[in-house]
Amino acid sequence: MERMPPDNPSVFGEPPMFVPGAGPSGEGASIFGIIFAENGAVLDNGSLHGRSAVEAGVEFVTERETLENPRRVPLVWLAREGHPQELKGYLGLVAVEMVIDHEAGRGWKNLAEHANRMTDAVRGEVDVGALTAVERAQVRSLLEELDAEQLQAAPHLLDALES
């Protein structure tokens, strides 16, 4: 996987991940991380490697039940066809979750599920069932801001974000 400098100033800290040879054309796919902060859905590619702003200072534990005040934190893996500097259409969009107890500085997530769902997004899967209607609307707004033309050309994403 190749790491490229971000072109978008709203991407915090990390560039998207590039997977050579992926996507329908074989030109590769770029994976972006979307996380939900107080102000809604934002790009935070640090989430691709467990280093998002929300995860900063959090020790992850193996047993979810040990968290006293867990807060659900949804993540979305967005895959686009092409190299980060030559992005084409939207491929896939998959939501996952983690829980964080910020007061205790501890959290839980299923790393295998996160990695597998990233792969699903690169393969073109769209599954936002883990998101609320408000969160889906926030993701749609972010994607429109990033590339409205390509979003309109991706009815599979639009349908999922409206249901």
Task: Note down, in words, how this protein is organized.
Helices cover 25% and strands 30% of the residues. It contains three helices and nine strands. It has helices at 111-122, 133-152, 155-162; strands spanning 2-3, 17-19, 29-37, 40-43, 59-60, 71-81, 90-101, 106-109, 126-127. Strands 1, 2, 3, 4, 5, 6, 7, 8 and 9 form a nine-stranded mixed sheet that branches. Strand 7 and strand 8 (106-109) form a beta hairpin. The longest helix is centred in the C-terminal third of the chain and has 20 residues, at 133-152.
Silhouette: globular
Mean pLDDT: 89
Q: What portion of residues is helical?
A: 10-25%
Distance between the termini: 33 Å
Low-confidence stretches: 1-12
As a percent range, the share of strand residues is: 25-35%
**Which class of secondary structure composition applies to the elements?**
alpha+beta
Output the keywords.
30% strand, 3 helices, 163 residues, alpha+beta, globular, single chain
Give a quick summary of the entry.
25% of the residues lie in helices and 30% in strands. With 163 residues, the protein is of the alpha+beta class. Strands 1, 2, 3, 4, 5, 6, 7, 8 and 9 form a nine-stranded mixed sheet that branches.
Which SSEs are present, and which pair or pack?
Layout: E1 2-3, E2 17-19, E3 29-37, E4 40-43, E5 59-60, E6 71-81, E7 90-101, E8 106-109, H1 111-122, E9 126-127, H2 133-152, H3 155-162
Parallel strand pairs: 5-8, 7-9
Antiparallel strand pairs: 1-2, 2-3, 3-4, 3-6, 6-7, 7-8
